Structures are given as structure tokens and as C-alpha cells.
Amino acid sequence: MAAKKTNLPGRTVYLIDGARTPFLKARGRPGPFVAIDLAVSAGRPLLDRQPFEPSDLDEVIAGCVMPGPDEVNIARVAALRMECGEKVPAWTVQRNCASGLQSLDCAALNIATGRSDLVMAGGIESMSHAPILYNLHMVNWLADLQRAKTPFAKLSMIAKLRGKHLKPVIGLIRGLTDPVVGLNMGQTAENLAHRFNISRSDMDAFSVESHRRLASAQDNGHLDEIVTIYDSKGKVYNADDGVRRDSDMTGLSKLKPVFDRKFGKVTAGNAAQITDGAAWLILASEDAVKKYNLKPVAKIIDAEWAGLDPAHMGLGPAHSMAPIMDRQDLKIEDIDYWEINEAFATQVMACVEAWKDDAYCKNEIGISGALGEIPRDKLNVDGGGISIGHPVGASGARIVLHLLRTLERTNTTRGMASLCIGGGQGGAMLIERV
Prior knowledge:
The chain is an alpha+beta fold. The chain is built from 15 helices and 14 strands. The chain has helices at 35-48, 74-81, 99-112, 136-147, 151-159, 171-175, 185-195, 200-219, 249-253, 286-292, 316-327, 345-356, 358-365, 385-388, 395-410, and strands spanning 13-20, 24-25, 59-63, 90-93, 118-126, 132-133, 169-170, 229-230, 236-237, 275-284, 298-307, 337-340, 414-421, 425-433. Strands 1, 2, 3, 4, 5, 10, 11, 12, 13 and 14 form a 10-stranded mixed β-sheet that branches. The radius of gyration is 22 Å and the shape is globular. The chain starts with 12 loop residues before the first strand and ends with a strand.
């Protein structure tokens, strides 16, 4: 049988192990952990249980969208703090919501092509610490104040200070707005609700189910990839804290639309939470597996990136998963479990609807026809971004890590992970359990 085509040509890439922090919901002020602390808190326990030394890594790669001012090239800072040693290079990638998946893809490509043998890759985000910036008026005023030499000149500049100078630039809001089409991510989700006629009640029902699934996963021990972390005051964090066990349709129906207050359907209850978290995985070549006596859990089979209209960016998973299905000659029933990041309930639902739509698949994705319906009982089985949260740099790594654990737990074989990406892109990765 001829070898199947893949976007990962060359050597086999194995997934060895992984860990993540609890995902902690932002609550209106900076949370207890900056991004680098989350990265180290997840990474050190993972490295401590490996049969190799941290210095044996060939490289460390991390996805991060909003690192703090002391976290430039956060992957390198994390590698040094995790005692990988100064000789292990590290670099940071940014592809918006799929930055964590991008780091895995970069690691996989380097291993597949022989550049690396053992890589730690993942994603990090502390969204509650997103920067608040001076506006341009204030920046120019400060520059002029700095240039003023005499006391009179300085007083003259101080007298020019106005209210407009004090208006901040909220980094999180600006970062979640597409600069080309001028829409924030919630408005693009409203576009999908309208395009596929997805009702508010269906979106809310999807969200209730996301919380129910996460609560069930916590109760049944399905999230053993989480490591316990501690803040500077000794407080313990050992579970995703955004779950709402009492979430129901009555409560969600009372929430008002956020992005289109008059006609909209997207609310805070059917959208992903603003969250802090980090996730890492260890990837290895067959040579590294033999050298360090590693025990692979799965292998990365294929990966794909796709572009589409930024105003409908939520459909990215439909576009990025389809070429993998085609290259690998797979049908929907061949995939045991699916993880599609829940940026918005309507966004995941729209991806499902798009694959059922013959015209959309032909005209927009460019394939021969409808792929069919992804079964809900195989999709995000332990909850998703709506209940777990969506720390944008980390989510791509989290969904691959959890897919890995799900395949192990259920003794199944094949899983697909995918995310939509602000700016009009989608990313997907296919893994198979060894």
C-alpha cells in the first residue's frame, strides 16, 4: 500500500507526555500568575518525571500572544527557569488563538526533517495580565515633557495635559479585534450565527452541555494532565475554576447579547472565558525514543493551516481539517474523538453545519461535497473553551494534550484537534495512538 501524503514528511514524530496548569478564569483584575510563572509551573513537573535531563532537549518552543514586558521570547525565559541550561535554544511563536498548536507543528516539522530529536513545545497565556497601554496623545506628551529642560518648560507641558491623554488602550480588547475588517471576534461569531441560522437557544444549550461535560470530567478523573500549582501566598490551584455546575438554560437566557445588543445572540454565557493557563508536550523522534527508553503515547500524523475571510474566521477548523481528511483518505467515522476549540458556541456549531453543507464544502472549502456530521458525543467530550476557558496562546496545546489523554483512557486510536484563528485562519492536527 502506497504511503499516504502528509504535511509532516520524513521521520515519525512521537508524543511522549504532557502537562498543563489548571485554567484560571480572569475575574476583572490581574490573576495570581503571570505567564512565565504558569509556564514554569506546568513544565517543571513534566520534566522532572522524564528519564532524560532537561538539558538533553534540542529546543523549547512556546506559543504566546501577549507576553508581559519581562517575558520577551518567553520560551527562552521558561527554558532557563526550568533548568534546561543555557545551551538549549528556545523560541516563541504567535499565530493568535492557535499559537500553542503552531508550536507543536514547528516542533514536529523540525523532528520530521531531522533538525531536532527531542523537543518541548506548548503554549502559555495570562490574559488577566494583558497590557494596558498609553495612547498616542500620552506618548507624545511624555516625549515632549522629557525634552523640556527648564522648570518653566516643564510646567508649560504639564499645563497641556488633558483628559484625552489619560484614555488607555486596552490591549485585550484591541488584540481581539481584527484590524483589517474592523470586527471583534464576537462580531465574527454573530456573522456565523446569521449565516447558518443558529438560534440563541441552541447556542445556550451547547454551552450548558460544555459545563456539564467539564463537571463530569472533573468528577470522574478525566483531567489527569493537570498539575497542581501554588501562588505566592500558598493557595492551591488544582482544577479549572471556570466551570459553572449550576449552568442552565434559564440562567443563560437572561444574559444580554454583548456584541450586537439589539439583534445579537452571542453572550458572555455562550462564549469562551478570558483565562490564564499553560500547557506543554514532549515530542520525540524514534532515535530519541530508543536513546532515552521513552514510551510514546501517540504520533502526529498530519497537520494543516488554512486561510479564509477574517469576518468568518470561526469556520477555520472546517477549512483546515478537510485537507487532512482528504490526504489521509478518512471519513468522519474514522476519527474516534474530535477537539474543536470553543471560542464561541456558534463557531463550533457553524463548523459542524459547514461540513454538512454540500454547497459550502464545494464552493468555500474546495472539496467534492459534504463531509457529513461530526457526532456530538465524540466532540469536546470533556468540555471546551466555554467551560474550561481559552487562554489564547495555550489552547492549541491543551486540546492536543487532552485528545492524547482521551485516546489513552478510551483505548481508541485516532483524534483530530482544531482551532479557529483571529484574522481568518484555521489550524488542525491529526494524531494516532501508538
